[in-house]
Design brief:
- There is one protein chain.
- By secondary structure, the protein is an alpha+beta fold.
- The chain has helices at about 5-25, 35-50, 70-85, 100-110, 115-125, 135-145, 150-155, 160-175, 195-205; strands spanning about 30, 55, 180-185, 185-190.
- It has a single domain (about 25-205), classed as Glutaredoxin (3-Layer(aba) Sandwich), CATH 3.40.30.
- It contains 9 helices and 4 strands.
- Strands 2-1-3-4 form a 4-stranded mixed sheet, with helices on both faces.
Length: about 200
């Protein structure tokens, strides 16, 4: 009779190997601004590409990035079509969404940044909603497990702006010109189209 392999033991061993592999990888941080459609395009794929990804809001205005005009909107729409993703423009776009960014900082600190960014960016660029509106913001936060009181308090907390601005300035000092950007160890990859390149560089370490 052959040796009987325990399925449970196999799963435990595999989980341990996966954990060891993730712990050996260099840290990866995704810097994003929720006002950018490219954050939405990145958020749809980032969690599948990076295990243990950290999410860090950074104001795009700190990078002196130009506001997205007709050419930029056309390019974003073409990129979304290439990725097979819907894209709808929120009313008044482009404009900053500082309340939503403050809640994103809260979500990142609570470990649910991915869920919040995905929900908020989908509401903005799939539904065309203004994610700075309290009701819409509360919906995105609820999808990430954040309560209404915490959400509204964070959205109005101006003291959160400093860290988000500093993240943008630090990226600028590192040579970043636009968001989203992924930092893998000491390497910085700017632009949603470089997600796979960043993931490959991380896996190769």
């Amino acid at each position: 009779m052959g040796t009987v392999t325990s399925l449970h033991a196999h799963r435990v061993a595999r989980a341990r190997r996966d954990l060891a592999r993730r712990q050996a990888l260099p840290p990866a941080t995704l810097f994003f601004d929720l006002s950018s459609p490219h954050t939405y395009l990145a958020a749809e794929r980032a969690e599948r590409l990076f295990a243990g990804l950290e999410w860090q809001p950074a104001y795009m205005g700190m990078l002196h990035a130009p506001e997205i005009g007709e050419d930029g909107m056309r390019a974003a729409s073409q990129r979304a079509a290439l990725l097979g993703l819907p894209l709808m423009w929120p009313d008044g776009h482009p404009r900053p969404v500082r309340g939503a960014m403050r809640v994103a900082a809260l979500a990142a600190g609570l470990g649910c940044g991915a869920a919040f960014v995905l929900a908020a960016s989908r509401l903005a660029f799939c539904g065309g909603f203004d994610i700075d509106e309290p009701d819409i913001l509360a919906e995105a936060a609820a999808a990430a497990g954040i309560g209404l009181h915490e959400t509204l308090a964070a959205a109005g907390d101006l003291s959160r702006d400093g860290a988000i601005e500093q993240a943008g300035l630090s990226l600028l000092a590192s040579g970043a010109l636009d968001l989203p950007a992924v930092r893998v160890g000491r390497l910085l990859f700017c632009g949603e189209q470089r997600l796979h390149e960043a993931a490959a560089a991380r896996a190769a370490v």
